[in-house]
Amino acid sequence: MSPKSSWRVLAAVLLSFALIAAACGDDEEDAPAVAEPAPAAPAEEPVEEPAEEPMEDPADEPMEEPAEEPMEQPAEEPMEETDSMMADESMEPVKIGLIAQVEELMAFPEVTAAVQAYVDYFNAELGGVNGHPIELEVCGAGDAVESHIACANEFVNADDVHVVINGGFLSNSIASGTILAEAGKANLGLGNDFIDYLTPNLYNFDPGLPGLAQVFFVFAKNQRDVSTMSLFLADDPAIAPFEPALYAIGESNGITITETIYLGFEPDLTGPVSAADTDNEGWLFVLADGAQCTAAANGVETVGYEGHLFGNDLCLSQDLVESGELDGWAGPIVSSAPTVDGGAEIDEINRVLDTYGGADVQTSGLGGWAVGQAVIARDLLIAGGGADASTESVLAALSTYSSSDVPGFPDVSCPGPDPWAGACNTSPLMVTIAGGQMTAPDGFTFLDFSELNFLLG
Predict the structure, then answer these.
(1) Cis omega (within 30 of 0) on the bond before 415?
(2) Among 370, 149, 169, 195, which Cα is nearest to 288's?
(3) What's the DSSP call for residue 133?
(4) How many CB atoms sit inside 10 A of residue 410's CB?
(5) What SS3 string covers 245-303?
(6) Which of 36, 137, 179, 357 is the most exposed place for a label (fewest CB within 10 A)?
């Protein structure tokens, strides 16, 4: 089936789903004036002096020291202590659920590591949720959608879990997300499928492939003057349905994809990479994980392609970026956490992850996304009532959530633009890689999701 005919099938599917924050005076000066028996003239002078000096002294000096300074210091210090206080372990915990894709082929342990690091940080420095400690409940899943469905049902039946970070991927994300949404359980999705943005009660802070692809093609056209492109696609059922969408989004931005080359998961991909058209101005890699991206990067180096190289966010893992193998590449990411030019905010993210994180902690790829999701999940629990929160109150908080304080993220707001109600983050970031570091010289690229309305037919 050709990309265009596949796209018509996808559009039909999408259309069907679319239907579904006072002092004393000076006694020593007063005493002589009162004790001296004098006529009226001397009596006027003592009256004038005590009347002026005591009035000035109490008003200026005593009032400043006892009344103003003590009030300023006690009011500020307790507030600072509260902001850096430990959660009370004797209090009942509040819980955040996490569906973690940690098994089999497509595994993202950096998501669990980053969320757990931030939960530990909340408990150690921010008092958990209103003093109550936060517990992270993890349900591990694998490639099969059945495992994600089982995790979703587990959290639907968990009366003490009111918000779930849904770490599924593509078809797994929509399968588990739909179950949670239909049960009225607030959930924050990852690696979103198109339908996620059209499903009631699904609100996402990951622009997903639609958002990332649109920003990528805008960048490639406007910043790199790319008009023709080869597409390298992971030979994986979860990614294959996006091929026609990538063709369509590219075409809408003046970029023609002339070919698709499918890449497997072999350690040496030089063969298929060498088959690509080197005359095309850009090569785009939409792959499944860091290992596949490493093999692809090695193939590009062997072939000696000199055009513009682009990779999706799953290629931009911390280890791979730091290795230098992707130097010269560019790609879209959700969070600015892995960049080196983000200032104090990025320094603080690194401090938290260095202090509380384990061996799997990363800021790149899905790790940066997970930092934002953890912060949003805590915000929702606080807004929903803390220890007294309910499933209904937390979902209500999510459906109107907005913030400019999520670390590594730009402003986020729910719901998104009609009909893309689930698109709460419309600001993916394009980064370039040099010297093993990500930089974002062009800043956040704000995305108008309405530009993707043509995908709905």
Answers:
(1) yes
(2) 169
(3) P
(4) 17
(5) HHHHHHHHCCCEEEEEEEECCCCCCHHHHHCCCCCCCEEEEECCCHHHHHHHHHHHHHH
(6) 36
Exposure b/e, 20-36, CB count within 10 A at least 16 = b: eeeeebeeeeeeebeee
How many Cβ atoms are within 10 Å of 72's Cβ, its own excluded?
9
Residue reference for tokens 């990025």: 346
CA-to-CA distance for 395 and 401, rounded, in angstroms?
A: 10
The token duo for 327 is 């130097």
From first to last of its 457 residues, the chain has per-residue pLDDT tens of 444 344 343 444 343 433 333 333 444 333 333 333 333 434 444 444 444 444 444 344 444 444 444 433 333 333 333 446 899 999 999 999 999 988 777 778 888 999 999 999 999 999 999 999 999 999 999 888 899 999 999 999 999 999 999 987 766 778 899 999 999 999 998 767 778 888 888 899 988 878 888 999 999 999 999 999 999 999 988 788 889 999 999 999 999 999 999 999 999 999 999 999 999 999 999 998 888 999 999 999 999 999 999 999 888 888 899 999 999 999 998 888 889 887 899 999 999 999 999 888 888 777 888 999 999 999 999 999 999 999 999 999 999 999 999 999 989 999 999 899 999 998 888 999 999 999 987 778 888 888 899 988 7
Cα 446 from Cα 251, distance rounded (Å): 20
